[in-house]
Amino acid sequence: MENDRRQQLAWLEFVRRTKRWRTAELARRTGVNPSTFSKFENDPDNKAQLDPGTIALIEEASGLRAFEHSVHAKPRGLAETESARYEAEPLAVVHGAVKAIKGERNGIDPWVLKSRCLEAAGYLPGDVLLVDLNARPEPGDVVCAQVYDRNGRAETVFRIFEDPFLVAATLDRTVLKPWLVDNDRVVVRGVVIASVRERRAA
Fold it and tell me: What's this model's pTM, rounded to 2 decimal places?
């Protein structure tokens, strides 16, 4: 049991270091009460453990598989990291717009686009894309999807849904490969319903 606890502690530290999350941010992204993590890490009896449900939430939020301690290469056919989970922006205009669009709606997940995969469709690197996880994609929709490698590790990507494929809208040849949506290796997570962009100087 003690070995399990040490393994959990080491993995939690790796997740926080890799994602640069403090306890409050980890709690916000997983929906877990911050005290759960505080009690686990500071247990005076050295017996507390994370339950399987909490571990699964950490995996989902971080994209890091339980108890792994290294960041692996991207699945073949993908460029550098194409997207990242949205962090609260220091620019009040951007963050205010994201909050307003989310409102009280459940299942709205903001991401930051980091590649040119949708430049021809009007989405640029740095844009914040708001994904409705409850929406069903229609042909032509810009969607958020996960592409899994042979080891089950996922990369989050954004593409245009042309049933049954996901396609890029770009001149960047490194991301032109279409993906077949098979709900196994390629899974659509949701539909982009809005985007927010910082004003850029001409």
Answer: 0.58
